[in-house]
Amino acid sequence: MTNPLQRLLDTRDWLMADGATGTNLFNMGLESGEPPEMWNVDHPDRIRTLYRGAVEAGSDLFLTNSFGGNAARLKLHGAEKRARELSRVSAELGRDVADASGRTVIVAGSVGPTGEIMAPMGALTHDLAVEIFHEQAEGLKEGGADVLWLETISAPEEYKAAAEAFSLAGMPWCGTMSFDTAGRTMMGVTSSAMVDMVEGLPNPPIAFGANCGVGASDLLRTVLGFVAQGSERPIIAKGNAGIPKYHDGHIHYDGTPELMADYAVLARDCGVKLIGGCCGTMPDHLRKMREALENTPKGPRPTLDQITSRLGAFSSAADGTGEDDTPKRRPRRRRA
Hints:
This protein is of the alpha/beta class. The protein is built from 13 helices and 12 strands. Strand 8 (207-212), helix 10 and strand 9 form a beta-alpha-beta unit. The model is unreliable at 323-335 (pLDDT under 50).
């Protein structure tokens, strides 16, 4: 039997995913440094409000509040033994909201990076990474997630470990990487290398793509890199709502709902099938995105010049595919 996400993908030209988790929770009172996953049990009504915000804005799919819910990340807060529980509850809350929506809404179990460096560069072995991801996957499965959603990954070794873990859990999955500078992930993966990796996996994802990064323009340039490889697998784009700027003691994203509406239409015209937002993307952005996708006829694939004229300049001249590209290392960010 096919899963609910696959059935939607088979019958729709595009699906709209959700927006930010952290940005919305900070607006509800989450403190800097506080693990959002604890709110699944401490403030479940706020998490339901987060999910409902996406659904009511028109999202066909939303991610659970479990991005940092693996044992490696929770260990920083002395909660590593609660990884399975917190992930399960995040999905249970999502299941409640999706089932009450009156339409088919996909609950996607968010799985973020471990925050550790994989061997041989670091201490995290493949087997341990699989164990960590498997534990979280089982929790999300128990909670009723329709699909697992790996996101903001930089290292191919970590992506592969998660794929193996999801196979052990018997769950369908999707997976994105974050392309930060010069069209590469923090660990140097290019768009073409990601396609090769995905297509070579024993347990490939239903859909793959990019999230977060440095801006909507850069993300769509990466998407065009995916498209150029000729993969027929559905592509995901979850770009940030503009560029983060520090103002009055807080980080704000300067992308307007109108800019994100342009981004959504351009993403669809680039060949993206699962379109959402990442850091800074609020329900107001999502409503405009949905309206634009429904009311703007599909156009030809945009050029790079058309993308920058609508969304702003790229952060670098290089797209990560040239031999002379030298990626700059940037610290990993959580999905906000």
